[in-house]
Structures are given as structure tokens and as C-alpha cells.
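We include the pair:
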Amino acid sequence: MAPHVRTLGDPRTDPWQENLTMTATTGATQSAHPERPGRSDGVCSEFTVFTKIKPGHADALREDLAAMADAAAEENVHAAVRQIGTLHDARHVIFDNDSRFMFASVFDGSWDTYIDDFAQTVVGARFDKVFSHCEGFPGVTDPGAKDWFVAQQEPAGVFVSAYPDLTVQQIYKDQRVDDAFQAVLDTAEFRAMLDNPANAALVGTPAFQKLLEEASA
């Protein structure tokens, strides 16, 4: 029996999800369903689609991509990307004399959840506008959208992640922890603690010295 494939907007039931919000977890170890194309490296998977641009639509597509870039600069898109919580990066390219369009990204978690999440944010609306210039695109909320993406998707010959064991959510957390620790390092109270003879045993441990070395690197 073929595995059940959720349609866009269905409640998420993936076991790697921490809860019913759009967020990756440290437990994400399989980043795409076996029947889906695309390569994985640790918790990260690549997603690359090549489409045909409708005749005469290249300039309109270019304008919509420019509008998307402007929205990203205003942080509207970045807010949606944080809401999705599984997207590492994405790029859009018009090529082959304005006849073809490529979208490529890196994400955490299951392929189906990744596609579903786009339909639930402002990113989905922008995707609808961009891909509407591509032949055969049914719309991001259409039940046939996943089949269309699969038909256009080509797996990478090689895919390597610089941090295969880190999900987007872990990277966000690491950044928050580092910011908080750096703030502590800048306080007079922390410097006084380091100079206090009562704390010499703790400060002298290899683990604490390693922490200080990493913080100052």
C-alpha cells in the first residue's frame, strides 16, 4: 500500500515535530520521505525544481522576484521564514535565455511538511505569484501542487551541508545562547567572579577554560 501523503493544510503528524507549530526539533534525523526526490546530509535536505517559463512571462517573473527581494529586505519574508522554522536558504534563478526558472532551497524535516508550511505563510502567497509564470503550476494550495513539484524536481548530484547535525531551530537557539553569554561576559560582575579566589577551582577547570576560549574566538 502506498504511504499516505498529506494535502496542503492538513494537520501535521510527523514524529520529528515537537508540536503542532511550524518548527524543527533536535530529533529531526530523516529530512525527506523515501519516495520524494532530493538528497539529504544529516538533518538537511535539498530541494531543486526546474520549470518552463510561460512565453512572454519572463519580465513579469523578474518583477515579482524583485518585489520578493524588496520584501525580504523589509524583513517581512524573514518573519515568515522564521515562522516556517525549517528553511536554511533559498534562491530563485531565471536562465536559458529567459525560458526556464530554477528554485532551490535547503530545509529540515519531511518533504511534505516543508511544502505544506509554505502554503500557511506570506511566503506561500509570494510563491503563488512567482510560480504562476511557470507552465502547469496549479497553485500552492491546490491538492495537485505536490505532484507538480515532484514532476519538476531534480535531485542534486552532490549535496553537502556545512552543519549536517544542526536544524534551523538549533541554529537559532545557539545564536540566542551566544548572544546571552556574550552579554554576561561584558558585565563587571562576571569579571569580578573570575577574579574571586573562591571561584578559582571552577575557573581553572578545562571545561570553563574551553568556554572562555570559544567565547573569545
